[in-house]
From TrEMBL:
The keyword Transcription regulation does not apply. GO terms for cellular component: mitochondrion. It is found in: Mitochondrion. It comes from Chloropicon primus. PANTHER family: ADENOSYLMETHIONINE-8-AMINO-7-OXONONANOATE AMINOTRANSFERASE (PTHR42684). This is Pyridoxal phosphate-dependent transferase. Belongs to the class-III pyridoxal-phosphate-dependent aminotransferase family.
Length: 470
């Protein structure tokens, strides 16, 4: 294929795949697999479809990385980017300088979050660096108001907050820490994943389970000393950890513990902001009141790298009032508030507001969630769970013990591969299959997804049962 070195084209060929991918060290790919696992090469996109080098068409069931909310080829976004590139391709927002487009967009972003207390933004290029920013804001806040001992951040196991050193430290996944020596950094603690189906005790109600997790959080705070805790960070619905919506009562109980000990709450809404749960913000869906929000992904519908920290009054005021203590606010990315990113973000926001895209998601959610929930009757499906346009199918060998299926290739990967053969892109985390379509999916798109998934499940059964012991 065009653009690849000759070594890249060696191997299986056909089906838009190559065995070795150029000079790029592929993210979240096992480098030792390069000889037996082909890479898919995509070249073109149209709405919710993408095409590989052989022209094969795929329905994108993951919106890129839960991010390409409006699909590819949106002329309004392309035009906004083009016009901005011609007018002013780049200027920064450092040293009291800014651009008209950065000002217009950030004020619109503040308006977007104002009903949840947002008064200010800090612009980044994606989710990880926005999370780094939020940790720095939390530390700055405590230093500013005279409680410099507050440094520890409490995160959760299985959380995904990105891969900068700060974000990977807060992420609660072994894959992200393994091989990196000092990760996670020592100022992070991880509490339990709120997954009732998996970790609830026999006879324990969802509410009791949530109360138990809140107690666990409180115990960690007390053990560490409340005056050492800066912030708690969490995704409203855990995403990359396997789409885990919180059990009933969870957010209420957690939030009251955070209030009791005056701990800042950072909501990592990189996946959930801008409509994925059927509300503007995921925090709105669960009625939680964070002090800081992290947003990215759908912010630009992934047409450009873009992220932000959304800052509420309490933190914004403390930073502003303490200017004499620390002088300049010593933080900023060259591409934070990039004019083209802002023009794209602004147009996305215009489109979302015009479409009321969150209402579309809310209307389509029952079709998506309830249709696929029926897969729980499959003998190897332990749980189908989700909220809005986020869904996971978890496979088990035995429903009662929830033991894992011991196939050589993990079950969700087998299914994801079959889906790909049938022209549907989804994601496997091993035993969990994740689906998170773009926010403009129509009924026809969902029907196509269901048909392709069903067909793929038929071949999945054949493959898996052949390998499983009787
Ligand atoms: N937080 C969450 C909840 C995410 O899902 C992601 C990305 N999947 C990130 C942070 C990191 O964002 P980025 O890859 O843009 O740095």
């Amino acid at each position: 294929p065009r653009g690849f070195s000759s070594s890249a084209t060696a191997g299986r060929g056909g089906q838009g795949v190559v065995n070795v991918l150029t000079s790029n060290l592929a993210p979240f790919t096992n480098p030792s697999e390069k000889d037996n696992r082909a890479a898919v090469v995509l070249t073109r996109g149209e709405g919710v479809y993408v095409y590989d080098t052989d022209g094969k068409k795929y329905l994108d069931g993951l919106a890129g990385l839960w991010s390409n909310a409006l699909g590819n080829g949106n002329e309004r976004i392309i035009e906004a980017a083009h016009a901005q590139l011609k007018r002013l391709a780049y200027q920064h927002t450092f040293w009291n300088r800014t651009t008209d487009i950065a000002e217009e967009y950030t004020s619109r972003l503040v308006d977007f979050g104002r009903h949840r207390g947002v008064v200010q933004t800090f612009m980044s290029c994606g989710g990880s660096d926005a999370n780094d920013t939020n940790v720095k804001l939390a530390w700055y806040y405590w230093n500013a108001i005279g409680q410099p001992s507050r440094k520890t951040v409490i995160a959760r196991k299985q959380a995904y907050h990105g891969v900068t050193i700060t974000a990977s430290s807060m992420s609660g996944m072994e894959t992200i820490h393994k091989g990196y020596g000092p990760l996670p950094l020592p100022w992070v603690r991880h509490v339990s994943t709120p997954h009732y189906w998996k970790y609830g005790l026999p006879g324990e109600s969802e509410e009791e389970y949530s109360a138990r997790l809140a107690k666990e959080l409180e115990a960690v705070i007390v053990r560490e000393g409340p005056d050492t805790i800066a912030a708690f960070i969490a995704e409203p619905v855990m995403g990359a950890g396997g789409v885990i919506p919180p059990p009933r009562g969870y957010w209420g109980s957690i939030q009251s513990i955070l209030r009791k000990y005056d701990i800042l709450f950072i909501a990592d809404e990189v996946v959930t902001a801008f409509g994925r749960l059927g509300e503007r913000l995921g925090s709105e869906f669960y009625d939680i009141q964070p002090d800081l929000y992290t947003v990215a992904k759908a912010m630009s519908s992934s047409y450009y790298p873009l992220g932000a920290a959304l800052i509420t009054e309490k933190v914004a005021d403390a930073i502003k009032n303490q200017a004499n203590k620390f002088g300049v606010f010593g933080h900023g990315y060259t591409y934070g508030g990039h004019p083209v990113a802002c023009a794209i973000g602004l147009e996305c926001l215009n489109i979302y507001e015009e479409m009321q895209i969150w209402d579309h998601v809310k209307r389509m959610t029952p079709t998506f969630q309830l249709t696929l929930k029926q897969l729980e009757t499959h003998p190897l499906v332990g749980e189908v769970r989700g909220e809005g346009f986020m869904l996971a199918i978890e496979f088990v060998a035995d429903k009662a013990s929830k033991s894992q299926i011991g196939t050589k290739v993990p079950p969700a990967t087998i299914l994801a591969n079959e889906c790909m053969k049938n022209g549907l892109l989804v994601r496997s985390t091993g035993h969990v299959l994740v689906i998170a379509p773009s926010l403009v999916y129509t009924m026809e798109n969902f029907q196509e997804m269901f048909t392709k998934l069903k067909k793929s499940l038929d071949s999945f059964d054949e493959i898996v049962y052949k390998e499983l012991p009787e």
